[in-house]
Structure formats: C-alpha cells, structure tokens
Amino acid sequence: MWRGHPDNNLPSAWQDMVVCMREAADIARQAGVVLGFEPEVNNVVDSAIKARRLLDEIGSPHLKVTMDAANLFHAGELPRMKEVLDEAFALVGKDVVMAHAKDLDHDGDAGHKAAGEGKLDYDRYLYLLHAVGFKGPLFLHGLREAQVPGCVGFLREKLARVASALPLRER
After folding, report:
1. Is the pLDDT of residue 170 over 70?
2. Residue 5 falls within a domain, yes or no?
3. What is the reported pTM?
4. Confidence band (pLDDT; 50, 70, 90) for 139?
5. What share of the chain has pLDDT > 70, as a percent?
6. Do residues 92 and 67 make contact, with C-beta atoms less than 8 angstroms apart?
7. Is the pLDDT of residue 86 over 90?
8. Does any domain span residue 122?
C-alpha cells in the first residue's frame, strides 16, 4: 500500500512526526477518543522500540498502539520471530488497543497474506495478546471475501487453543 521513504530514519523525520502526533493526541484528548498508531517496517515508527519511544515522548493516555505482528519483521528478522514478538509485547503490549490478523510469507515489507496462510506464529501472537490482558478487537484484513470463512475458522481454533492452555483462574 505504501513504501518506506529514504528519510524515515532521519532525526528530522522523527521530530516532524512527534510534532504532528502531539497535536493529534491533543485533538484526541479534546474529542475524548483514543488514537492508535501502527508500527510498520515502512513507517517512521518501524519497530516496537520506536513505538515505545513515541509513547514515552508524547506521554498521552489518548495515544495507543495498533498491533499487527506481520508488520514487525525487518529484513533478516523472521528467523527471530519469537524474540521479535516477545520484545514487541514487552515494550508496548500494555498499550495495545486494537490488533490486526494478517500473515506474511517473508520478512521486510511482507505482511500482506491472509491470516493462517503464512509464517506468522499465531500461537505465540495470540498468547501474547492474552498475556498483556488485551480485550480489544482483532481485525482481519489483507484477504479476499472468499478467504474470510477459512481465516475466521483458523483464528477461532487458535484462540480456543490459547484459552484451553491457560490455568483455570486465567480463563
């Protein structure tokens, strides 16, 4: 849908984004809503580390995270899937207000497959969402209408597996 810009990693891009996000967070505060941003490999905020930095710099309860695990993997990071997912949730898990369910078949700009049709470790992803107490919506996207029943079934099976693996007091 979009590509990374060569200037995304410049300090000036970060500064410009922070100015805009402060204004957006203030508008969200005035409106009584929460604004979610999504860390994605093509964005200025291209990692969970940068997402945590942005949250800390803005310091607003009206700015939170949309988690899409398929968007977290820079080139060469897919073999470190568990580490990348665990780090992301350790850094921003408590600030996740919405989650996406799609998949990837390679790292880098790759998160464009329907959930369950790629390499994302959904057992880990869904476990981590549960572990941080996530109760928000899980949105399917990046799929055709014909793929919806299969993706919904896949996610229901994975969510049931996560729930059945929890101690009784956590169910």
Report:
1. no
2. no
3. 0.91
4. very high
5. 95
6. yes
7. yes
8. yes
Number of independent structural domains in the chain: 1
Q: Does residue 45 lie within any of the structural domains?
A: yes
* Stretch 120-146: mean pLDDT: 94
Closest C-alpha among 135, 110, 122, 132 to residue 162 = 122
Q: Are 18 and 55 a contacting pair, CB within 8 Å?
A: no
Alpha carbon separation from 54 to 40, 79, 171 (Å, rounded) = 13, 27, 33
Pairwise CA distance, residues 100 & 109, whole Å:
16
- pLDDT of the residue at 167: 60
Sole residue written with tokens 């995270």 = 65
DSSP letter string over 80-144? GHHHHHHHHHHHHGGGEEEEEEEE-SSSSS---EETTSSS--HHHHHHHHHHTT--S-EEE-S--
Separation in Å, CA 160 to CA 6, 94, 116, 127: 42, 22, 15, 11
CATH number of the domain where residue 91 is located:
3.20.20.150
pLDDT at 171: 41
